Amino acid sequence: MKHLSPLVVCERTGAWAVALRAALGDAACLVYETRNFDDCRAALEAAPQGMAAIEAAAVDLEEMLSTVIELSRHGAPVVVLAARQFLPHETLFREAGAVQVVYSRRQAPLAARLFLRRAALAIPPSRPLPVEIWEHLPWPDARRPDAKGRDAD
Fold this sequence. Notes:
alpha/beta; 5-stranded parallel sheet; 6 helices; Response regulatory domain-containing protein
């Protein structure tokens, strides 16, 4: 069974990761837990098709927003995991690049569905890479490397 792209959960306690794993159920997912933003960035650099779920905390809100901006600029979808006290900041989180903001672990299925949709798009094609590339080039099919019985030049 193929594993989906990883979900990198950056939080202090691990409670959100537990809720997300439960919401993902039997999906073949890799959930990485990190406790700081540097480890979160490193995990996503190692797996560029991954997605991040980052906890909002009052003590490091500015650094969290900087991380959301940086990750979203590099193409990683980011879900912000926040307590209800951060409801007035939702627009700020979204402007920073968050694709979703969840305020309760009971909303973990919402984030899980988003992750599974993203991961389904990232599954590699079933055809060999050279065939995929040739499909998107402008020259005739006769020059394709898999064309049998034809001269390639």
